[in-house]
Amino acid sequence: MRQKLVRVLGGVAALALAVGGAAACKSDSGSEASGDACGFKIVFFGALTGSDAALGINENNGVKLALDKYNKENKDCEVTLLPLDSQGSPDQAPQLAQRAIEDEKVLGVVGPAFSGESEAANPLFSEAGLVHISASATRPSLSEQGWKTFFRSVGNDNAQGPAAAKYIKDEMKADKVFVIDDQSAYGAGLADEVKKALGSAVIGTDKVQGGGKQTEFSGTVTKVKSSGATAIFFGGYYTEGGLIRKALTNAGVTATLIGADGMKDPAFIDGASDAAAEGTIFTCPCLPPAEVKGTFAADYKAMYGTDPGTYSDNAFDAANILLAGIKDGKNTRADMLAFVKGYTGEGVVGSYKFTDTGELDPSAVQIWAYKVEKGQIVPVKRVPLT
């Protein structure tokens, strides 16, 4: 997701347990038995603080849940989580990537979470041979750079952008659309896909600053109001999205705001207010809770006291793929990379198999539309991709 941009043991055991042959080893870090060492780590790489931290926290929680389940069943050889807080900033990404690379016990990474930080970190991971599976970085060009270690457990914006445009045209019947983006790798890239698919229905565009750098949007509101748009698409994150919706409503603009996965978070409603947020639409290559398999949602709520957030389940699945490799005795980065490349299995989100460029197999990608109703984000329908 973004410049930063934001499932399986237990009830669905096929993902992490389908691969047999656990490495025989002792619990103390660094000790060895039968040639296999314990004390391995996987990394979560994403924003845990900052303006878009909710998206990173969602994913980190999913990864922690996967490790909690794994370690309870493998107490003789536990795996440790190393969280790396990028604050969603590409500027911080290289040094964090280097930290993961230099830790010899790290066998894989869940992340980076956002597209911008992925652009900064992925070349380093590729050079080091450290496999990484992003649960949310959706910019299509990430898989076009030749990075040999890059995978994602989520569909990209080549699917989400056209799906958002299709919903705007077919379901909302909007023929006058104003498109705004936050100039991030994620937001601008997604907005471009939406504009391409909407064609002549786009009657105006504008750019704002993301990452908490802009809080006043009167200029954008004036442009939207004068355009006569009946729908507004925003490519960006919930912080700016909520403030834009609030400013539009305060100015008397009733046109529906449509966002995507970067906006699909309760923090959007907090920023906009319940009244202003009402009716906002989000698209997301993520499943409604009722569509998620197994006991994931119940286990997550039992552990954290809240329902899973956007991409918690995709991150859970990504972590379990790495854990399945460790369970199978893949204790070098080269072996783990080969394992992920050839992986086929079931997660709580669905089936996992990767293309040669690290993309989730297109047949497994689903795009859903969600809507804000009475202060809650609720699923509306699955959006056909064709």
Q: Could you state the order of secondary-structure elements as H and E?
A: HEEEHEHEHEEHEHEHEHEHHEHHHEEEE
How does the overall form come out from the CA principal axes?
globular
Low-confidence runs (pLDDT<50, min 5 residues)?
Answer: 1-35
Kindly report the spatial arrangement of strands forming the biggest sheet.
9-8-10-11-12-15-16
Number of helices: 13
Largest sheet: 7 strands, mixed
By secondary-structure content and strand pairing, the structural class works out as: alpha/beta
Radius of gyration, in Å, reads: 21 Å
The total count of strands amounts to 16
Span between termini: 22 Å
Fraction of residues in H or I helices: 25-40%
Q: Can you lay out the helices and strands and say which pair or pack?
A:
Layout: H1 14-17, E1 32-33, E2 36-37, E3 41-46, H2 53-73, E4 80-85, H3 93-102, E5 106-110, H4 115-128, E6 132-134, E7 150-152, H5 157-171, E8 177-181, H6 185-198, E9 202-207, H7 218-227, E10 231-235, H8 238-250, E11 256-259, H9 266-272, H10 274-277, E12 281-284, H11 296-304, H12 312-327, H13 333-341, E13 344-346, E14 351-353, E15 367-373, E16 376-383
Parallel strand pairs: 3-4, 3-5, 5-6, 6-7, 8-9, 8-10, 10-11, 11-12
Antiparallel strand pairs: 1-2, 12-15, 13-14, 15-16
Helix pairs in contact: 2-12, 3-4, 5-6, 8-9, 12-13
